[in-house]
Design a protein that fits this description.
Layout: H1 14-38, H2 42-45, E1 50-55, E2 61-64, H3 71-85, E3 96-99, H4 102-105, E4 112-121, E5 124-134, E6 164-168, E7 171-172, H5 174-181, H6 187-215, H7 217-241, E8 245-254, E9 262-272, E10 275-279, H8 295-310, E11 324-327, H9 346-366, H10 371-374, E12 387-393, E13 399-403, H11 437-443, E14 446-453, E15 469-475, E16 480-486, E17 507-512, H12 516-521, E18 535-538, E19 542-549, E20 553-557, H13 572-581, H14 586-591, H15 609-623, E21 645-647, E22 650-652, E23 659-661, E24 671-676, H16 677-682, E25 697-703, E26 710-717
Parallel strand pairs: 10-11
Antiparallel strand pairs: 1-2, 1-5, 3-4, 3-6, 4-5, 6-7, 8-9, 9-10, 12-13, 12-16, 14-15, 15-20, 16-19, 17-18, 17-20, 21-22, 22-23, 24-25, 25-26
Helix pairs in contact: 1-6, 1-7, 3-8, 6-7, 8-9
């Protein structure tokens, strides 16, 4: 969104407002470029796992780069807590402070390390330059900083609170440097990355000071304040278009590193006028496993969903989140206190928060009278960073830690007008990039055997959810590694919307005792079809200290996004193309999408229109238990027309016009079919890990009793002892 003249207060120049705003945005982008060019870590240079930002003297955001969204919260908390911690202490140009402790500095987890530098205009503090990046190792019990085995935060990493000065007047604080490097496994890489964060801040300082010199300090302050106000006003106007009401929903974090329990993430969203309140009261208490979520990252995870849904074209500054209040109980899963471990809370519980806020905003948008806001509804993103960290010693004796950024290749949720993005990344990290196979093979002793789309991961729908990917590697240049894994979306997968089905899950396996070396010696590239193994070991959802040897093959698959709309509303020719591309099988095309193919059934001949119409009518009758639909679906029904809509007479199905309910909640008046999620989705060609203990993970399918349209599917977790899924 460029600055619109209707939002500019009297006495201010719209062009100057826009120039200053864009200048700040370009500065934080240039800070990111400086970090990439000075860092030696592929996590930064290849995958963009960092953020850069500028803040005012009290910690309000001037501008924020769009690399990692949940750092919006963690970066803000880090700066605000630093300001409080060092109040009254001497401060000089060239100083820089380092912190990474989630409990006191708001970091997402200990590897996400902040460096914060003051910005001076003469003798006056102008603000703060902040850079944050995932550093490959920060000490603790497990290489790479993810510690599934930790029972407290003291085991996870070296904890740096706000106020630790790492540079003073432009020079390293030597005793701090010594302490840091004595506690990490790869000290040279660690220190170089710290210096790259300082370089990023120095770039921001130079550019911000030049901007203030150009416009004058008073004008700069006035115009940035007005830009805050404009951003807040735009977001409030869009919130006002959502339907007022109180909305509640749940998500579930899986496996805390010790036990395969499910941990509730609950939110009550109250939307009144131009204000949203998100109250996470009712979430599970904090646990002794590594899935607890820092409050700073809770706020960032909320922003990760709210910004693309309501502020999609609003440049991010302090004003964007002003209309959203976030409440969380201290000592809960989403606002823990020491000694709660926290090293994977952002990629587990934080991702669940983004999914949960998406579902709540979907409900409020569904009932909006504004077509643009209704179109912001979507299938839920997988938002599951499926992690693999390998550590060991090369054949030449050099120690290495590989945090494989391939874990970011999850599918996004489908949209009202298009399929979700394949390997699109997390909602919290929209600029994530997957590493080149060649780059990983050059830097680490691994050899990829395959890397491809995970076609069992996309949620079916009128628009398909995005697919995750899957890959396999074996060691090449090291005898063995110790592996840490986490697969946050394995059993409780991402919901679809408006009749779209949930996406598939994630996981890891080690194929033990393979013949990969023998195949290579014969000139054959191993594939899953040619490779044999003594056994295939499915790993736990979270697990550490897994040994992978030179004859083993490590396999990882990544979750997909939820679909949008009833699959029977998908264009049959798109389904035929999907079959031809290998995205779905001919069997799935017939059973799920009701598409009958011409010719050999390989998709090349397109769809048989008349046979498809008959097959889709049969499927709608099957949904109703046998009788044909009393109310036909329009032949030209739009892909987004299965999501129930409300008018003055109540709820109806736009695909057919059939009335559904006159009550506040249409779900009580439609057909509901419930079954085990993994079993039901497996029948649809979607891979989800079965849950073998209580509580049960169920799939509910809500169907229009008049037209047989699939109105909604949703993952539900049954309370202990309640297999029917009722609350």
């Amino acid at each position: 969104m460029s600055t619109n003249s209707t939002y500019v207060p009297e006495g201010y120049d719209a062009v100057t407002l826009e120039v200053i705003r864009m200048r700040l945005d370009s500065i934080v982008e240039e800070m990111g470029s400086a970090m990439i060019r000075s860092s030696g870590s592929p996590v930064i240079t290849e995958s963009g796992d960092f953020n850069t930002a500028l803040f005012d003297p009290v910690g309000k955001i001037y501008s924020y780069s769009d690399f990692v969204q949940f750092h919006i919260g963690s970066g803000s908390v880090a700066v605000q807590n630093l300001v409080a911690e060092i109040e009254g202490e001497p401060l000089h140009p060239g100083d820089a402070f380092i912190c990474n402790d989630p409990h006191t500095a708001g970091s997402a987890h200990p590897p996400d390390t902040n460096v914060i530098s003051p910005v001076f205009h003469g003798d006056e503090l102008l603000g703060w330059a902040q850079s944050q990046a995932h550093l490959v190792d920060v000490g603790g019990m497990t290489p790479g900083g993810f510690a599934p085995g930790a029972y407290d935060c003291f085991s996870e990493a070296l904890r740096l609170p706000p106020g630790v000065k790492v540079f003073e007047r432009g020079r390293p604080v030597e005793w701090v440097r010594r302490v840091l490097l004595n506690n990490v496994r790869v000290p040279t890489l660690f220190w170089n990355d710290v210096r790259s964060l300082v370089a990023s801040n120095n770039t921001g300082i130079r550019r911000l000071c030049a901007t203030v010199e150009e416009f004058g300090l008073d004008a700069f302050r006035d115009y940035t304040r007005v830009n805050f106000e404009i951003a807040e006003r735009v977001v409030r106007e869009r919130i006002a278009l959502l339907a007022d009401g109180v909305y509640e929903a749940d998500e579930w974090t899986e496996h805390n590193g010790h036990v395969n329990e499910l941990y509730r993430v609950h939110c009550t969203m109250t939307k009144a006028g131009e204000q949203i309140t998100l109250d996470f009261t009712g979430s599970s208490p904090q646990t002794d496993g590594f899935v607890n979520l820092s409050y700073g990252t809770l706020v960032g995870s909320v922003a990760s969903a709210l910004v693309p849904i309501l502020a999609w074209d609003v440049p991010f500054n302090e004003g964007v989140m002003a209309a959203c209040d976030v409440i969380a109980e201290s000592g809960s899963l989403v606002n823990p206190v020491p000694p709660a471990p926290i090293s994977n809370g952002h990629l587990t519980t934080g991702a669940r928060v983004s999914r949960l806020v998406t579902k709540l905003l979907n409900e409020a948008a569904r009932a909006s009278r504004d077509a643009v806001i209704r179109a912001r509804s979507q299938g839920v993103w997988a938002d599951s960073w499926t992690g693999g960290i390998s550590a060991g010693t090369r054949d030449d004796g050099e120690y290495f830690v590989l945090f494989n950024m391939d874990g970011g290749g999850m599918g996004t949720g489908a949209q009202p007008v298009t399929d979700g993005l394949d390997c699109g990344g997390m909602m919290t990290q929209v600029n994530n990039a997957l590493p080149d196979v060649e780059m990983n093979e050059m830097l680490y002793p691994v050899l990829y055997l395959w890397k491809r789309l995970n076609t069992a991961s996309a949620g079916h729908g009128a628009h398909r959810g995005g697919q995750g990917h899957e890959f396999a590697w074996r060691l090449y240049g090291a005898p063995e590694v110790t592996q840490t894994v986490f697969a946050p979306t394995a059993q409780v997968v991402a919901d679809g919307f408006g009749g779209g089905y949930p996406g598939g899950g994630s996981g890891h396996a080690v194929w033990r005792g393979t013949d990969a070396a023998e195949l290579f010696s014969r000139g054959t590239v191993p594939t899953d079809a040619t490779l044999t193994a003594a056994r295939r070991e499915l790993l736990e959802i979270n697990q550490q200290d897994v040994t992978v040897g030179s004859d083993d093959v490590f396999v990882q698959w990544v979750a997909g996004g939820g679909g949008y709309g009833d699959p029977l509303l998908r264009d049959p020719e798109l389904v035929a193309r999907d079959v031809g591309d290998g995205y779905v099988t001919a069997e799935v095309a017939a059973q799920v999408y009701g598409v009958v193919l011409n010719g050999d059934g390989d998709g090349a001949g397109g769809a048989d229109a008349e046979a498809t119409l008959r097959r889709r009518t049969e499927i709608r009758a099957e949904r109703l238990g046998g009788p044909p639909p009393a109310h036909p679906v329009a032949p030209d029904a739009a892909p987004d027309s299965s999501a129930p809509r409300r008018d003055g007479d109540g709820w109806y199905c736009p695909a057919s016009g059939a009335r559904l309910s006159t009550g506040d909640d249409w779900r009580t008046d439609v057909l509901t079919r419930t079954g085990a999620a993994a079993e039901r989705l497996a029948g649809l060609g979607v891979r989800v890990r079965p849950r073998e203990s209580e509580p049960a993970v169920l799939l509910e399918e809500l169907i229009s009793p008049a037209c047989g349209t699939l109105l909604e599917t949703r993952i539900r977790v049954a309370p202990h002892g309640r297999e029917d899924g009722t609350p």
